[in-house]
Amino acid sequence: MLTTPDVVTALSDEAQLNTIFARSPVGICIARNTIILNANAALLAMFGYEDVAQIRGRSLVDLVAPSARAALTERAQRRERGEIVPNVYEIIGMRQNGSTFPYIVAVDTIQLADGIASVAFCTDISDRKRAEDRLRFLAESSIVLASSLNYHETIRNVTTIIVPSLADWCTVDMRTPDGGSERVAVFHADPLKQHVLERIRTNYTLPPNAAMGYPAVIRTGRSILVPLVTLSELRQVALDQEHLELLVSLGVYSMVFVPISARGVTIGALTLGLSELRASYTSEDLAFAEELGRRVGQAVDNGRLYQEAQDAIALRDQFLMLAAHELRTPITSLMGYAQWLVRQQQAAEYMPTERERRATETIAFQAERLKLLVNTLLDVSRVEQGRLMVERTPLDLCALLRRMVDDVQTILHIHTVVGDLPANPVIVLGDVLRLEQVLQNLMQNAIKYSPRGGEVRVRLEATSTHARVAVTDQGIGIPEVAQERLFTRFFRAPNVADIGGLGLGLQLAKELIELHDGTIEVVSSEGQGSTFTVRLPLYSPPIEE
Ligand code: ADP
Q1: CA–CA distance, 279 with 254 (Å, rounded to integer)
Q2: Residue 341 in contact with residue 360, Cβ under 8 Å?
Q3: How far is CA 258 from the centre of its chain?
C-alpha cells in the first residue's frame, strides 16, 4: 500500500517514524531480553494476532516453531557471550493457531530511552519457498519422467512422485481410441485405501459424457478445481450406493483434475486428491498440476513414439526375414539352371555366341550375388534370435588370406590388393567359412569405398597370444561421428550415399568375430582411408598327458 506523501511530511519526526513502523510491509518486533515490547501490524498479521496486547510481554520463542527454539536460544546465548553471530537468518515461525511457516529475520540492536533493545525485521518467505519447492519438484519429476520410455512405467513413476508431495492419492486415466477412457494407474499414500482405489477402478468407470471429473477433462481439455468436495457433489458423481461409500471412505476432501496433453491434444487426465488432513487445493496448485500434466503428456508421448518406432522396426525386420526366406527357393533354382547353362556352353559341341556366353555368365554371377545378399539377411535374423553359431576347428589364417588375396586380385582393374603375410602358419581356432565371410567383407568394403582405386593392404601378424589381421585402404575414410555406430545394424556413414550397400556386413562381422572370442575395430580419417583390425586368439593345442 502506498502512503500519501504529504500526509507523512506534515507530521513530526516521531509521528513520521511511528507511521512508517505501523505501515511497514516488513514485520517489526522490538524486544528486550527476549521479551516482546512492541510489534507492528505486519508482524501481527504474519503471526496471526489481532492486537499487539496479545503478544506484548511474551517471549520471542513463542514466535518460532518448537523445532527451531533450541537454535534460537543458542544463538541468543552466543550473542550474549560476545560471539559474532549472523544477524540475518532463516527460521521456521509459528502462528497463533500453531501452524508453521518459514521467514527471514534480520536482528539489530537499538538504543531506546530506557536502555538497549533488539529489533527484529521479519519477512514471510512461504511463497518463495513454495515456488522453490515446486521448481525443484518439476526438475525432479522431469528426471523421473525421462528415466523410462516404457509407457506404463512412465505412468507408474508419475504416481509415485505425485504422492505424497502433491496429493494423498492420484489416478491416471488415458483416452481410449473409442473416445472413452481407461484407468491406467491408481496410487494412494495409505496402503489400506489403495484397496479402495483398486475397487473403484475395477468396478466403476464414469461415462465419457459425465459432467464432472476426469471424463469432462478428457472431453474438453479443461482442468477442474474442486477446493472443497461436498457430499452432494459425491452423490452426483457416484454411480450407485456402494460407489458413493467407496468415495466417502477414500476421504475425498479437495481435488484437482488436469489434462494430460501432448502436441496440443488431450490424451488423458490426472486426478489429484487430498484427504481431510490437509489444506484444500488452490488455483496456484491447479496451475502447478497443469504444468505437471503437460510434462507427463510429453513423457507419455515420447514413450508412445518410441514404442511405435520399435514396432515399426520389428515389422521391418520381420518382413526382411520373411522375404529372405521366400527368396531362397527361387534363387536356388535360378542358380542351379544358370550353372547348368554355363556347363552346357562349356561343352565342346556347343558353340554359343559371345553375347549368349556373356548373358549366361552374368545370370550366374548375379544369382550368386543375390544368394549372398539373402544369406546376409538370414544371418542377421539369426543374430536377432541368438541363433548365429560357428563351428571352430584349427585353421591357418595365413593360408586362408593368401588364397583370398590371390582370388580377388584376378578381378581387379584399378585396385591392387597386397598381402603382407608372414612365412609361417598362424593357427587360430575358427570357422573357416565364417572367417572367410568376415575377411571377404572387409576386403570388399576396402575396394568398394576406394572408388578412385589404390592399394588395399592385408597384413597378418602374430603376437605371443593373438593373430592380428589389418585391412587398410586409401579410400574415402569414415567421418569421426560415424565411427562409433559403424558396427550397428543398417548403419551407413553419411559419406557413402553414392555407394550401394545395406549396412549389415560390419554388424555380422562383429558378431562372428566375437563368437570367435576376438575383437574388431576401426581406425580411420575421412578422405584418407581406413584400417579395420581383427584380433583372434591363437590356437594352443591341448597338452598331451
Ligand atoms: P555396407 O557396406 O553394405 O553399407 P557394412 O556393414 O559393410 O555395410 O559397412 C557399414 C558402413 O561402414 C558403410 O556403409 C560405410 O559407411 C562404412 N565403411 C565400411 N567399410 C569402410 C571402408 N573401408 N571405408 C569407408 N567406409 C567404410
Answers
A1: 8
A2: yes
A3: 23
Other CB atoms within 10 Å distance of the CB of residue 363: 17
CA 464/CA 126 separation, integer angstroms: 72
Per-residue pLDDT of the chain (545 residues; tens, 9 = 90+): 444 555 555 678 888 889 999 999 999 999 998 899 999 999 999 999 999 999 999 999 999 999 999 988 888 788 778 788 888 999 999 999 988 899 999 998 888 888 888 899 999 998 898 888 888 888 888 888 888 888 788 888 888 888 888 899 999 999 998 888 999 999 999 988 999 999 999 999 888 898 889 999 999 999 999 999 999 989 988 999 999 999 999 888 899 999 999 999 999 999 999 986 557 899 989 999 999 999 999 988 988 898 899 999 889 888 988 898 899 899 999 999 998 988 888 887 878 888 988 898 889 888 888 998 899 889 988 888 888 999 999 999 999 999 999 988 877 889 999 999 999 999 999 999 999 999 999 999 999 999 999 999 999 999 999 999 999 999 999 999 999 999 998 899 999 999 999 899 999 999 999 999 999 999 999 999 999 999 999 998 887 66
Nearest to 304 by CA among 181, 154, 178: 154
**Distance, CA 184 to ligand 1 centroid (Å)?**
45
Rounded to two decimals, the pTM is 0.62
Q: In this structure, which residue's CA is closest to atom 7 in ligand 1?
A: 505
| Residue 382 Cα to ligand 1 middle (Å) | 21
Residues with beta carbon inside 6 Å of ligand 1? Answer: 441, 445-446, 449, 473, 475-478, 486, 492-493, 496, 501-507, 530
CB 11: neighbour CB atoms within 10 A? 12
Q: Which domains does the chain have, with CATH numbers?
A: 5-124 (3.30.450.20), 130-307 (3.30.450.40), 389-537 (3.30.565.10)
